[in-house]
Design a protein that fits this description.
The chain is α+β, with helices and mostly antiparallel strands. Helix content is 35%, strand content 13%. It has helices at 2-18, 78-90, 108-128, 153-159, and strands at residues 63-65, 96-101, 136-142, 161-166. Helix 2 (78-90) packs across helix 3 (108-128).
Amino acid sequence: MKKLFISIVLVNLLVACASEQPKEPEAAAPAPAPVVEAPAPAPAPVVEVDPLNDPANILANRSVYFPFDISAVQAADKPVVEAHAKYLSEHPDRKVRVEGNCDERGSKEYNLALGQRRADSVKQMLMLGGAKASQIETVSYGEEKPRCTDHNEACWKQNRRSDIKYQ
């Protein structure tokens, strides 16, 4: 009988361990708060920088320099003139005035003629690059509009130029 009693107790223990206890109803978990996404910030307005006024752009350089008594555009300034030619060909509504200048050496008449040849040289290169003749006006100021007024080579070098002025 002892064996029977121990068997019953063991069976009851096994049954008690194996059976699941009825679960008490859980408190309903609070519903997750609806996720409200913050509105995306408005995209920054695209501000188009005018390449003519951007100092980092080659178009900000509008002067072409010449050696003494020369009117041909020099290799160092060709990229500047080519960039302006491309800009003018892409913007047919834009116009420029090319102003030829000289240093103070030479007669007024000679300097006016040299300044005109310099302006015409830049105009020709602009047209070869795609600009239309109707977009370009040339004028010579000779020695009348110096950038520097000292009487030395460093100053004269600054005055031997053609300026590209957008209208």
